[in-house]
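Subject: Protein entry, chain in single-letter code together with its fold tokens

Area: Proteins and the way their chains fold up in space.

Attached in line: The record itself begins immediately under this heading.
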Amino acid sequence: MRAPCKRSGEKDEQEEGVAAAAGRLAGAPEAEECSDVDSDSDREMEGIHGPGGLVKDTLYLRSCQAHSVVPASCFLRQGSTPELNLRHHGLGPQGARALASALTSNPYVKRLDLRDNGLCGAGVEALAGALSKSSTICDVDLSENQMGVVGAQAICAALTVNLTMQKVQLAGNGLEEHAAQYLAELLLAHTGLKSLDLSYNQLTDHAEYLPLGPQVGANIFLRVLDISYNGFGDPGASAVGEALKTNNVLEELNTRWIMVLEDSLMWP
């Protein structure tokens, strides 16, 4: 797990080429002296990634410069691959803002893994804006990012208008009662969501909008729901049981260690 959310990002292992590129964008003196080398380097990058990839990388580097963060070399090496894995990179809120700007112009990413990056509510809010506009990303992992209720509200609002999303992981984010309302609204509104992981949070029985009652019963598209390790008691068990009476499409329900009676979770 990462340190508290006050961190704005930390330096990851970066290649010398990444630092040099960031320096050129910042207008470093050596840029003019190496103009021929830069030109060859740009042509080589364009040959590998294509013009669109070059534009994407340039936008990302400029965004990193604007937010005073070190670029993530994984993003620059991604090319046109469908998965972007940046888990455990310590991006922080500022790094998330820089990444969000670049994601809006990236047509390649389908799966985005940002687990354990200390994004906090502010970072998730920035990413939510990009996710709400993406027509390609269908699988996102924002687990272990201390997003809290602010991040939960932002991400749920974004996914409600982005029906491309099919799989969402929000485990270990400290989500409590106040976040439950937004999760419930997401389940009711999103008709394409097939898998939702809410494990290792604190969504107790006392939430006004428990995200596993009528919402699960009304959602006829969700196939996988993980609510394990949330501390639900008998009221939670009853809510699950009632939901399953009207939902015959859910294929996998993980309720491990929510302190419920097995009889309450029997399929109708």
